[in-house]
Design goal:
Layout (H helix, E strand, L loop, with lengths): L2 E4 L5 H20 L1 H11 L2 H9 L3 E7 L4 E9 L6 E9 L8 H10 L7 E6 L4 H9 L3 E6 L11 E7 L2
């Protein structure tokens, strides 16, 4: 059984492993293993993960069964949009999918931002499983971008939102 808790600095190496495994399983078919490894190295380096875990105003959660991390989620209040929480990451280890981990992580995140009226996220347009998950949890498409994950990434994304409260 996995329990959702706040991530700590001691989770950083396990988080990198979970993200690398999940990214390759999710995105290799879209971008190829080399591009995916570049994204992992850029976005999920140990210093980048440590900074996110320690960041004030954000919530970094893990699903932990005492032996391994089965999933993770990270959200923070938007710097540019008022009353908007940005869901930056929600990943479940491939071998742990369909166990309710994503649902449990998301349910906890929804309670972490009492001032937020909207939760917003970006999702790869070909990632049908993620889109279906988000739609099942009340998100709808509101826009599209060609800069998923940051300016000039060149990666397409569907922008989805869900009202909170």
């Amino acid at each position: 059984m996995f329990f959702v808790r706040t991530a700590s600095e001691r989770d950083v190496e396990a988080l990198r492993g979970l993200l690398a495994e999940s990214f390759h399983a999710t995105y290799d078919g879209f971008y190829g293993p080399e591009k995916v490894q570049q994204l992992i190295d850029a976005w999920h380096s140990l210093p980048a993960l440590k900074a996110r875990v320690e960041k004030k105003g954000g919530e970094f959660l893990v699903a932990d069964d005492g032996r391994r991390l089965g999933g993770m989620a990270y959200a923070a209040m938007s710097k540019t949009m008022t009353k908007t929480a940005m869901l930056h990451q929600l990943y479940v280890r491939p071998s742990c999918q369909r166990m309710g981990i994503g649902r449990d992580l998301f349910a906890e995140l929804e309670t972490c931002f009492p001032d937020a009226e909207i939760m917003r996220l970006e999702v790869e347009p070909r990632n049908a499983a993620a889109i279906a998950f988000y739609e099942a949890h009340g998100f709808t498409e509101v826009d599209r971008t060609t800069s998923c994950g940051g300016p000039d990434s060149g990666l397409p994304a569907i922008i989805m939102e869900k009202p909170l409260g």
